[in-house]
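Entry for the shared binder. Reason: the reviewer on the internal report wants the predicted structure included alongside the sequence.
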Amino acid sequence: MNGRVASRKSGWKVWGLVGALCLGGVDVTAAPAPAGSGPAAVPPAARPAPTLALGPSTSPRVLTLEQLRALPSVTYRVEQPQLRRSFSYRGVTLRDLAELGGFGGQDLRLYASNGYLALIRARDYLNAPIMVAYEADGHAISVRDKGPLTVVLPPEPARYRTLAYSGAWVWYVNRLTPVQAGAQGGK
């Protein structure tokens, strides 16, 4: 790959990040994953079953896929913006997960297994059924479709379909933590 193409691709990532930060609503940061790491690098037979950790890395509550499926769920149809395809997603609301983790009402950091990180404000997840989805169209979500666990924003209000919220669609999500007071960068 020549440097010109790599630079252009990096530029789009930076502008997407800048757009999300400037337009407000969702703060997004991403750390590069080591080459050959992440869900796509592991053969399907060797991938561990998905889990979701709630809370700090020192003492998280870890939920298995079966435990997530046992929690109250929401279902709605929405277009996944990066795939440009609509799915009927099923999952657990961030509101319920934050309550279960003991940090309901606080802004959340959502971590992906590939090193990606996004912040979702409490005002958003308390007022809309933003979910961690584990199912799309009645089936487990494939890695190719941004699974096995992915953050999904509802179709309404319309602001969730803007550039400002595009970074909130966290793929391969594996951990939720509260944002500590004063750690939000003054926003």
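Summary line for the report: The helical segments are 3-23, 65-70, 94-101, 122-125, 163-166.
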